[in-house]
Write a structure and sequence with these properties.
Blueprint: H1 6-11, H2 22-25, H3 31-34, E1 41-45, H4 50-64, E2 69-75, H5 89-107, E3 115-121, H6 130-140, E4 146-150, H7 157-173, E5 176-180, E6 200-204, H8 207-217, H9 221-224, H10 238-243, E7 248-252
Helix pairs in contact: 4-8, 5-8, 6-7
Length: about 250
């Protein structure tokens, strides 16, 4: 799948997630089959908010099973509005972590026990630091951890790099990794053949879980607002929010 620029990702049509016949054929899986009892669940997010977009529903379900939770945000997301005077990087570096706290609260995450590590890597430049990222992730993993991260072929350079780096770290430590598609669903339909359908599993979500996930996504006010003065559309475009209304999330096992 061709790597996407930030602007490409914002403008992609929603063609795979609402048109591919394979979606209906994906077998369902229960969260307890993904993470055995007592296992620590680790979410590796390239940017603040990716954990909500990728697995906000799954996170809710796993938290009710009382798994220990670790969230790793590798960047502060401050490069989401390049060239903007309304949302400069200096403002976003403060705002986006605050938005993440509110989003996690809206998901119902146990903030008193959730451990949160911030990597401090440069946003929108992760492929150049892939080895360092892998070493950083491995430092916080333990054997037997169940790790969720972005798919290594998601179509966004940062997401792809984090998927590869996480896989390497898990192999080194002895943790199990699952990958999550985010931007891949918004690729042209002709690229649907790139989706590893044989690995796909569907985590079903009830109405309340979907509603809380959407409520959490709306905590990212900076991502719901682009910058019309420079022609920058919102990162959380309406089509992406519509996909989040689906009563399931997809995991590549």
């Amino acid at each position: 799948m061709k790597p996407a620029t930030l602007s490409d990702a914002r403008r992609r049509p929603a063609q795979i997630w609402n048109s591919a016949p394979q979606i209906a054929q994906i077998p369902a899986i229960h969260p307890s089959s993904l993470a055995p009892p007592g296992a620590r669940v680790v979410i590796i997010a390239p940017h603040p908010g990716d954990e909500v977009l990728a697995c906000g529903g799954l996170l809710q379900r796993l938290s009710t099973l009382e798994h220990p939770l670790l969230l790793v945000s590798l960047t502060d997301g401050s490069a989401s509005h390049p060239g903007s005077n309304v949302w400069p990087a200096s403002r976003l570096s403060v705002v986006r972590p605050q938005e993440s706290v509110e989003a996690l609260r809206r998901l119902g995450m146990p903030l008193h026990s959730l451990k949160w590590i911030r990597g401090g890597f440069r946003d929108n430049a992760l492929p150049a630091h892939e080895q360092a990222i892998s070493q950083f992730i491995a430092r916080y993993l333990q054997p037997g951890d169940v790790v969720f991260t972005t798919w290594r072929h998601d179509g966004n350079d940062d997401h792809d790099a984090v998927g590869r780096a996480t896989d390497k770290a898990c192999s080194l430590v002895g943790a199990h990794v699952y990958e999550l598609p985010v931007w891949a669903w918004h690729c042209p339909a002709r690229e649907g053949a790139m989706i590893p359908w044989h690995r796909a599993r569907k985590v079903r979500l009830d109405t309340w879980t979907v509603a809380r996930k959407l409520h959490a996504a709306h905590a990212y006010a900076s991502q719901l607002a682009g910058d019309p003065e420079i022609g920058l559309p919102p990162m959380l475009a309406q089509v992406l929010l519509e996909r989040m209304r689906e009563p399931y999330e997809i995991v590549f096992a």
